C-alpha cells in the first residue's frame, strides 16, 4: 500500500489574463489531440454557456480529458481544467488549481504581463504548481516574445527560458505546448489500493442526469454501484454513473488515482454538494479528509424586484432554477416600501450581478428592477452586539450604533506610464491608500488598499476609460476597517425611495448626493407637476434639484382621428413606461437605479 506516480497522466490548468487567449488555446489542444472532429469544433467548446460566449468570458470551470501520443511514443492522458479569467470568479480558479499539478501560464506576447496574470499565477504558485510559460499571439506584428520572457522572469520570478511561443489563433506550435505539458509538468501520485479519497471540484445541475459532480481522485478507485460518503456533509450516495469528459460525457468502468472525471448519484440539488469536500468509500473510509476550501461569500448585494408585481412567483421560481447551478448566488425575500415584493440577492461581484440579472430577464422573460448594489457592513451596536448589514434600508437607528466597519480590498493595477497620474488620482478620490508603486517595463504597477464600497459601482469602468482601456485590475478582499459612514437617503417628490438609499463616507456624502440628484433629474422624465429630488442624511437635506413640470400629451397632435396612428403612439408610450416604477405619483425609469450610482463624484 504505497503511493506511486501515474506517469501517463498530466493534470493541468491554463492561467491567463482575460483575453490573452486561454479559451482559444484550449480549443486548439482539443482539436490537435483529435478529441472532437472539425465539425464538432463549433465555437469555443469550453465556454459553453450562451452568455459566456457572447461576453467572451469564461465563468464556470470545465474540464476535458485528452489523449496525446507524444514524441516519446507513449500515449498520455491530459486533463485540462479550464478556469475563469474574471476577478469575480477568482475562487473558482483556486479550486480548479487544487485538482492539478501544473499550469500553463498564457501571456499575450504583444501585451505582456497584466494584473490578472499576476493574481492567477500567484494562485498557481501557492497551489505548488509547476508552471510552463506560453507566449501567445506571436502572429501579431506587435508581438515581442523576448521582451515578454524577460518581463515574466523579472516580475513573476519564474524561469521563462523555455517559454513556448505559439499562436493559438493560427495553430502554430500547439505541438510544442503538448510536449511541454508531458515533459515539464509532474505526473500525479496516489495509492490505488488505499481507501477512496477524492476532491469534489465542482458540481452542476443537468436536466437529464440531475446533479453532475466533478471529482479528482487522490487515492483508491471510484466505481459505478459503489456507495460513497461526502465527509463534510456526512451524506451517502450510491453511484449511478462514473465517467470522463472527452469532452463529451463518456462513461468509464472506474476512475483511479490522479484521474479527473464525473459521477452522478441521484443527488437532487447542487446545494447538497459542497465544493472542496472529500469523497470517500462509505464502508472503507479514508482516515483524514483533504484540506477543504473556504466557502464562497457573496460580497455585493442588491434587491431584484419584478416590474410587474404579478411576476413575483415567476421570479422566485426562476431564482430557484438559477441557484441550482450557481451556489455562489444567494437570495432571500425582501419587501420594499417603494418596490413591493422582491428578493435581496448576494453576488461575487458586479459582473456576477449583471450576468444573473441578464439571465433572469433573458431566459425567464422577466422585467426586473435592481436596486443600488451594496457591500456587507459590520455594525457594532451600543448593546455590545454585532450585526451584518446587507441592505442600507435596514440600517438601525444611528443612536444605537457604536461603529460601522466596511470591507477593504487590496487592488493591483498595471497601467502604461502616461495614465499613471489619472489612475493615482482616481484611487485617491476613492479613499485609497497607496501601498506600493513599481515598474514592469514601461508600465507602472500600483498597489492600493481601497474600500470595496468605492469600487463596486463604477471603479472598473472609470479605470478603463481614463486609461483608454490599457490599465488592468485585480483585487482580493483584505479586511474590515472602521469608517465614518452615514446613510444617505434620496427623496423624490418628498417621498424617500428606499431602493436608492446607500451608505457613504461622510466626506463624500455631499458630492455623492449632489451628483445623484443631478443624475436623477436627467433620468426621470418631466411629469405634469414639479418634482423636487433631494438627498438627505438623517433629517438634513444635503442636495436638491427640481424637475420642471411639463404637459406632455402625445396624442394631441393627431386629433384628425387616425385611430391606428393614435393606438401606435399610445402603445409606444406604454412600451416606454414598461420599465418604469411608480413612487408616489412619480414614474422612475429602471436605468435611474443603476445609473444614479455610476457617478464621477
Ligand atoms: N492574433 C491572435 N489572436 C488571438 C490568438 N489567440 C487568441 N486570440 C484572440 O484573442 C481574443 C481572446 O481570446 P480568448 O481565447 O477568448 O481569451 P481568453 O483568455 O480565453 O478569455 P477569457 O475566456 O475571457 O478568460 C479572441 O478574439 C481570440 O481570437 C493568437 O494567437 N493570435
State the main characteristics:
eight-stranded antiparallel β-sheet; elongation factor; cell membrane; binds guanosine-5'-triphosphate; protein biosynthesis; Elongation factor 4; alpha+beta; six-stranded mixed β-sheet; 601 residues
Walkthrough of the structure:
The structure is a single chain. The chain is of the alpha+beta class. Helices cover 25% and strands 34% of the residues. The strands form 8 sheets. Strands 13-12-18-9-10-17-14-15 form an 8-stranded antiparallel beta sheet, with no helix packed on it. It has a 6-stranded mixed beta sheet with strand order 3-4-2-5-6-7, with helices on both faces. Strands 24, 25, 26, 27, 28 and 29 form a 6-stranded antiparallel beta sheet that branches. Strand 27 and strand 28 form a beta hairpin. The radius of gyration is 27 Å and the shape is globular. Bound molecules: guanosine-5'-triphosphate. Residues 16, 18-24, 56-58, 85, 136-137, 139-140, 167-169 line the site of guanosine-5'-triphosphate. Guanosine-5'-triphosphate (GTP) binds at residues 16, 18-24, 56-58, 85, 136-137, 139-140, 167-169.
Amino acid at each position: 500500500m504505497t503511493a506511486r506516480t501515474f506517469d501517463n497522466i498530466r493534470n493541468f490548468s491554463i492561467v491567463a489574463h482575460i483575453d490573452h487567449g486561454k479559451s482559444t488555446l484550449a480549443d486548439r489542444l482539443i482539436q490537435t489531440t483529435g478529441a472532437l472532429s472539425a465539425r464538432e469544433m463549433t465555437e469555443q467548446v469550453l465556454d459553453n454557456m450562451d452568455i459566456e460566449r457572447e461576453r467572451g468570458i469564461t465563468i464556470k470551470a470545465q474540464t476535458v480529458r485528452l489523449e496525446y501520443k507524444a514524441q516519446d511514443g507513449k500515449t498520455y492522458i491530459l486533463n485540462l481544467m479550464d478556469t475563469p479569467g474574471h476577478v469575480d470568479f477568482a475562487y473558482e480558479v483556486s479550486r480548479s488549481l487544487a485538482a492539478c499539478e501544473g499550469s500553463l501560464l498564457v501571456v499575450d506576447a504583444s501585451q505582456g504581463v497584466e494584473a490578472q496574470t499576476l493574481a492567477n499565477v500567484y494562485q498557481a504558485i501557492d497551489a505548488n504548481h509547476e508552471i510552463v510559460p506560453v507566449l501567445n499571439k506571436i502572429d501579431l506584428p506587435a508581438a515581442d516574445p523576448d521582451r515578454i520572457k524577460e518581463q515574466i522572469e523579472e516580475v513573476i520570478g519564474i524561469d521563462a527560458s523555455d517559454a513556448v511561443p505559439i499562436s493559438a489563433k493560427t495553430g502554430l506550435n500547439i505541438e510544442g505546448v503538448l510536449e511541454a505539458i508531458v515533459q515539464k509538468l509532474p505526473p500525479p501520485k496516489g495509492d490505488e489500493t488505499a481507501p477512496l479519497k477524492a476532491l469534489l471540484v465542482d458540481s452542476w445541475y443537468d436536466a437529464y442526469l440531475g446533479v453532475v459532480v466533478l471529482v479528482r481522485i487522490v487515492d483508491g478507485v471510484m466505481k459505478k454501484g459503489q456507495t460513497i460518503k461526502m465527509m463534510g456533509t456526512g451524506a451517502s450516495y450510491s453511484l449511478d454513473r462514473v465517467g470522463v469528459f472527452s469532452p463529451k460525457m463518456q462513461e468509464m468502468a472506474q476512475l483511479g488515482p490522479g484521474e479527473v472525471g464525473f459521477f452522478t448519484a441521484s443527488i437532487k440539488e447542487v446545494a447538497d454538494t459542497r465544493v472542496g469536500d472529500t469523497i470517500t468509500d462509505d464502508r472503507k473510509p479514508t482516515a483524514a479528509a483533504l484540506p477543504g476550501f473556504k466557502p464562497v461569500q457573496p460580497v455585493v448585494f442588491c434587491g431584484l424586484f419584478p416590474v410587474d408585481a404579478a411576476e413575483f412567483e415567476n421570479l422566485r421560481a426562476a431564482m430557484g432554477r438559477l441557484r441550482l447551478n450557481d451556489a455562489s448566488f444567494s437570495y432571500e425575500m425582501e419587501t420594499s416600501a417603494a418596490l413591493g415584493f422582491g428578493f435581496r440577492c448576494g453576488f461575487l461581484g458586479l459582473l456576477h450581478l449583471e450576468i444573473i440579472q441578464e439571465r433572469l430577464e433573458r431566459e425567464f422573460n422577466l422585467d426586473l428592477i435592481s436596486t443600488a448594489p451594496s457591500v456587507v457592513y459590520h455594525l457594532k451596536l451600543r448593546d455590545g452586539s454585532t450585526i451584518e448589514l446587507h441592505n442600507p434600508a435596514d440600517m438601525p437607528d444611528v443612536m444605537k450604533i457604536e461603529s460601522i466597519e466596511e470591507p477593504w480590498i487590496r487592488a493591483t493595477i498595471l497601467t502604461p506610464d502616461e495614465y499613471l497620474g489619472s489612475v493615482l488620482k482616481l484611487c485617491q478620490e476613492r479613499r485609497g491608500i497607496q501601498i506600493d508603486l513599481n515598474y514592469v517595463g514601461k508600465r507602472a504597477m500600483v498597489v492600493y488598499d481601497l474600500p470595496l464600497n468605492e469600487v463596486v459601482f463604477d471603479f472598473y469602468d472609470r479605470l478603463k476609460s481614463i486609461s483608454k482601456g490599457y490599465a488592468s485590475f485585480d483585487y482580493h478582499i483584505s479586511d474590515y476597517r472602521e469608517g465614518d459612514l452615514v446613510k444617505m437617503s434620496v427623496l423624490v417628490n418628498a417621498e424617500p425611495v428606499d431602493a436608492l438609499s446607500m451608505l457613504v463616507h461622510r466626506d463624500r456624502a455631499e458630492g455623492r448626493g449632489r451628483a445623484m440628484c443631478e443624475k436623477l433629474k436627467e433620468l426621470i422624465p418631466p411629469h405634469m407637476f414639479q418634482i423636487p429630488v433631494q438627498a438627505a442624511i438623517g433629517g438634513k437635506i444635503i442636495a436638491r434639484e427640481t424637475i420642471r413640470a411639463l404637459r406632455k400629451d402625445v396624442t394631441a397632435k393627431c386629433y384628425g382621428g387616425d385611430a391606428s396612428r393614435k393606438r401606435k403612439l399610445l402603445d409606444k408610450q406604454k412600451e416606454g413606461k414598461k420599465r418604469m416604477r411608480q413612487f408616489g405619483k412619480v414614474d422612475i425609469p429602471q436605468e435611474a437605479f443603476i445609473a444614479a450610482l455610476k457617478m464621477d463624484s
